């Protein structure tokens, strides 16, 4: 089989790092993209040392969309066709709407919305139609449920949900497979490590480790699954969500909100 | 010179107080119980009652100290209250760092762990390598968070160095965190008779004396904000027990237990603890870890700190002798330890400028 190459955005930390390691473990070459100073060269050299794959890395700020052309021009010059695109880079928040400034929201929308759309467009333009290409868009269960303090984040993930589902229809029958990944909480950043470990019961059961999510996601992507929801409890919540009447859901969220307000 | 050692009754801290006291430092040994059986009585060791969770006691203990070794941590496999890990390892460390900043100590060495890297793939991990999995093990997670605290204080100007010992074994008491000691003494008694999986899983074993000398070298030569792996040799379970057989002369027929069975058992243990509150023998997150190697390279410490690695067979032989020794022998052992440590003195004295 031909050796595949994957682009992973936001690859230096958290879920992106797990994607990089998971793909390398499946002998897939990597083009890793992440912010400068986030430990990307170290990760790239670690993967080169421990796996039999080629790794290129680009330290760029993905909110500067001018830089995308540079990556794809370079890939063309190197005669590298990429077969997988993992749109992973994103910016979360857990704050009341008025607690963040406009620069933050601009950056969040750019990174969570504009970046994956443009990269998908550029990726499809270079894809080899004779072999299967794969795109994984990282959404969130937050794109499905209303979660206070995640107003803009959840909205960007709803956008990704619509965008992915719609492209799946457009690309039906083509050699491109698109998957939407809708994870619940993942133990990634330090502040999440602290917060997630204070959770109990069902809330705790929705939290997964990044390497589990990456493994499930790549499995689903290669199988051509339309939506991937890692974790039994999370799938159950989605099922419940479709069954419960709206007023009960509203009530649950309001009660959750009260506990948030108190804490 | 006055130095403070937190966790002075712990496996590493205890030996560290002894070596420092022998070199001639005035050691303040912070402990929650000054009658603790593992606290070493020595003219240069002053037991100080305190707790890293209470800042007032810390300030009193650190008064007049130029150097601080922060070895205190919750390193057990399980705590009844899971918040204990975060309280002691993260908030306790922050308290130590805050107090050290306020008092203006010259240098601080923080004892972290190779557990902040955890599993490895092919090659031994170095200081710049990334962690490849999440942090399901509370000890590893909170030690990682504590390292972030240390880095924060370094940015604010506190000269703190991080050392990362691997799985430490050696001549010391069998404390909760001394897992190798439990394994070796179990083998000697004939009660530890199993090897997990096919026995090919590799871990890194660091000899206590090396780790203690590495702490002192890090205090002298370590660059603030840098991390140094203080490890030993990468050894598989099979080689571990083969060496143990060789050095102890005791042969046991070891049973290899399939990982699937260990995993199943760990889930039963988890359930047992959930229902009855009886401490578990083993937990699923540790069973999961048995799938991976844990190999670490101490090259940076060897080159930059002059770190020395005792051959595994030699270190294990000393450990076996120590565990076999009776109480009276233990005193002799301590005597010989004093002599052994004379070698360390010179290097330590050379750099205690």
Structural write-up:
The complex is a heterodimer of chains A (263) and B (353). By secondary structure, chain A is α/β, with parallel strands linked by helices. Chain A is 51% helix and 13% strand. Chain A has helices at 14-25, 40-50, 66-77, 102-126, 151-170, 190-196, 201-205, 210-223, 232-243, 246-262; strands at residues 5-9, 29-34, 55-59, 84-87, 133-138, 176-181, 227-228. In chain A, helix 2 links the parallel strand 2 (29-34) and strand 3. The longest helix of chain A is centred in the middle third of the chain and has 25 residues, at 102-126. Chain A is globular and about 55 Å long. The mean pLDDT of chain A is 90. By secondary structure, chain B is an alpha/beta fold. In chain B, helix 1 (11-23) links the parallel strand 1 (2-6) and strand 2. The model of chain B is unreliable at 326-353 (pLDDT under 50).
The average pLDDT of chain A is 90
Count of strand segments of chain B: 12
Quote the beta fraction of chain A.
5-15%
- Basic shape of chain B: globular
Rg of chain B, Å, rounded: 20 Å
Beta strand count of chain A: 7
Rg of chain A, Cα atoms, Å: 19 Å
What class would the helix/strand composition of chain A place it in? alpha/beta
Total number of helices of chain B: 12
Q: What class would the helix/strand composition of chain B place it in?
A: alpha/beta
Helix amount of chain A, in percent? 40-55%
How far the N terminus sits from the C terminus of chain A, by CA atoms, comes to 54 Å
Mean pLDDT of chain B: 91
Relative helix content of chain B: 40-55%
Portion of residues in beta strands of chain B equals: 15-25%
Low-confidence stretches of chain B: 326-353
Largest interface: A-B, 21 and 19 residues
């Amino acid at each position: 089989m031909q050796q595949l190459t994957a682009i992973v955005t936001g690859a230096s930390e958290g879920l992106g790092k797990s994607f990089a390691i998971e793909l390398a473990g499946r002998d897939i070459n990597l083009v890793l993209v992440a912010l400068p100073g986030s430990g990307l060269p170290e990760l790239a050299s670690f993967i080169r040392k421990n796996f039999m794959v080629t790794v290129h890395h680009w330290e760029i700020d993905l909110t500067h969309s001018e830089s995308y052309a540079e990556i794809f021009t370079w890939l063309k010059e190197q005669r590298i066709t990429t077969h997988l695109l993992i749109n992973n880079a994103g910016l979360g928040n857990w704050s009341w709407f008025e607690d963040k400034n406009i620069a933050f929201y601009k950056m969040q929308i750019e990174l969570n919305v504009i970046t994956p759309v443009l990269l998908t467009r550029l990726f499809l333009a270079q894809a080899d139609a004779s072999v299967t290409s794969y795109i994984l868009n990282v959404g969130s269960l937050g794109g499905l449920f209303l979660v206070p303090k995640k107003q803009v984040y959840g909205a960007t993930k709803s956008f990704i949900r619509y965008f992915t589902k719609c492209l799946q229809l457009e690309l039906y029958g083509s050699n491109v497979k698109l998957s939407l990944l809708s994870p619940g909480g993942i133990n990634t950043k330090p502040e999440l490590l602290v917060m997630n470990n204070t959770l109990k019961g069902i809330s705790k059961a929705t939290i997964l480790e990044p390497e589990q999510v990456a493994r499930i996601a790549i499995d689903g992507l290669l199988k051509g699954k339309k939506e991937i929801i890692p974790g039994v409890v999370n799938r159950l919540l989605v099922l419940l969500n479709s069954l419960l009447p709206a007023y009960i859901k509203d009530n649950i969220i309001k009660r959750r909100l009260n506990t948030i307000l108190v804490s | 010179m006055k130095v403070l050692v937190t966790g002075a009754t712990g496996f590493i801290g205890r030996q560290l107080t002894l070596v420092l006291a022998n070199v001639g430092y005035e050691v303040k040994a912070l402990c929650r119980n000054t009658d603790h059986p593992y606290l070493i009585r020595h003219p240069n060791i002053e037991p100080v009652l305190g707790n890293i969770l209470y800042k007032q006691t810390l300030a009193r203990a650190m008064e007049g100290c130029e150097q601080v070794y922060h070895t205190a941590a919750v390193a057990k496999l399980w705590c009844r209250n899971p918040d204990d890990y975060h309280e002691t390892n993260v908030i306790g460390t922050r308290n130590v760092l805050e107090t050290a900043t306020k008092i203006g100590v010259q240098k601080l060495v923080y004892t972290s762990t190779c557990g902040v890297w955890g599993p490895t793939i092919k090659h031994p991990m170095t200081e710049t390598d990334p962690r490849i999995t999440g942090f399901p093990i509370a000890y590893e997670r909170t030690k990682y968070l504590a390292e972030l605290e240390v880095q924060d204080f370094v940015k604010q100007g506190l000269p703190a160095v991080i050392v990362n010992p691997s799985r430490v074994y050696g001549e010391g008491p069998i404390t909760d965190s001394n897992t190798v000691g439990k394994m070796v003494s179990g083998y000697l008694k004939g009660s530890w008779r199993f090897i997990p999986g096919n026995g090919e899983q590799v871990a890194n074993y660091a000899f206590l004396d090396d780790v203690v000398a590495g702490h002192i070298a890090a205090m002298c030569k370590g660059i603030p904000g840098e991390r140094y792996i203080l490890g030993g040799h990468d050894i598989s379970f099979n080689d571990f027990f083969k060496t143990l057989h060789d050095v102890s002369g005791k042969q046991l027929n070891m049973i290899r237990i399939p990982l699937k069975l260990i995993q199943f058992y760990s889930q039963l243990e988890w359930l047992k603890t959930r229902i009855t509150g009886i401490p578990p023998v083993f937990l699923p997150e540790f069973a999961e870890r048995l799938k991976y190697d844990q190999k670490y390279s101490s090259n940076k410490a060897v080159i930059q700190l002059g770190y020395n690695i005792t051959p595994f067979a030699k270190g294990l032989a000393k450990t076996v002798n120590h565990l076999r020794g009776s109480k009276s022998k233990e005193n002799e052992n301590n005597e010989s330890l004093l002599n052994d440590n004379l070698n360390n003195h010179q290097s330590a004295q050379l750099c205690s400028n």
